[in-house]
Each structure stands twice: as structure tokens, then as C-alpha cells.
Amino acid sequence: MTTHRKAQARPAIQIRETDAERISNLAIEAEDRLPQVAELLLAEINRATIVEDSRLPQNVVALQSTVKFLDEASGIERTLQLVYPQHADIAAGRISILSLVGAGLLGLKPGQSISWPDRAGKQRALRIMEVNQR
């Protein structure tokens, strides 16, 4: 498993201009506490197509979106809202952008999947089923 191969497997993503700026700032602030998440988020923003807020398609995962996705390894479907860290509450279905799963979902749309590390360091395939923006 090389870094090059993993990068090739990642689908094209789009991120709203405002989200890209705010998430970059969050990631930079979190580098000491959450180095892996910060590095992954900054890499995703760097490879993303950044679009004007009003031009992001409604079916793309953005902050405040509710996303239904499938963990292909376990076969478990989950529906979560992607939120800022201070609003995260997994019991209420709200996942932080500064979590590994939250960072992996950003910018994807239905039908796309991404191979993404979990907390144990294993790669997991997450497939987007449905997205609802707020």
C-alpha cells in the first residue's frame, strides 16, 4: 500500500470556498492535538476543486450536510450530519469535521467511495449513498 496508490484511488471532490477556509483554519489549529486528521483534511482541501458557495451542487457533502453512507467493510449504513467540532454529538447523529470519518466524507457525492483510515489505522471504504444539504 503506497501513498501514491492511495492518492490515485481518491475521487474528485468539490468544497465550498467558505468551508475550505474555515476547515483549513480548524485543521491548522488542531495539528498538535490531531495530527493525522489535520494532515488528511489539509491534503483533501489542497486536491479539491474549490467552488463559490452558491455553486456547490446540492448533492455534495459540505459542512451541515446530512450524509447517508455505507462502510463497505462492515456493511453498516449510517446517516450523520457533518458539523463543526463544538456541535458534534455522535449520539445525536452529528459527526465532527475533525474526526477521521468526517474528514473523509467532505466533498463527496452519491456513488463515490473513498478508502480512508480509521482510528485503528486500517483503510476502510466509505461509499456515499445520499446527501442532503441544509
Taken together, the total number of domains comes to: 1
The unreliable regions are 1-8
CATH top level label: Alpha Beta
According to CATH, the homologous superfamily is Transcription elongation factor, GreA/GreB, C-terminal domain
Q: Give the C-alpha Rg.
A: 14 Å
Q: What's the helix count?
A: 4
Number of strands: 7
Task: List SSEs in N-to-C order.
Answer: HEHHEEEEHEE
**Second-tier CATH architecture:** Roll
Here the CATH topology equals Chitinase A, domain 3
State which percent range the strand residues make up: 25-35%
Major β-sheet annotation:
5 strands, mixed
Shape: globular
For the largest beta sheet, what order do the strands appear in spatially?
5-4-3-7-6
Overall pLDDT level = 91
| Helical content class | 25-40%
Gap between N and C termini: 37 Å
Structural class: alpha/beta
Written description of the protein model:
The chain has 134 residues and is α/β, with parallel strands linked by helices. It has helices at 3-9, 17-30, 35-47, 100-105, and strands at residues 14-16, 49-51, 66-71, 76-83, 94-96, 113-117, 123-132. The strands form 2 sheets. It has a 5-stranded mixed beta sheet. A two-stranded parallel sheet has the order 1-2. Helix 2 packs antiparallel against helix 3.
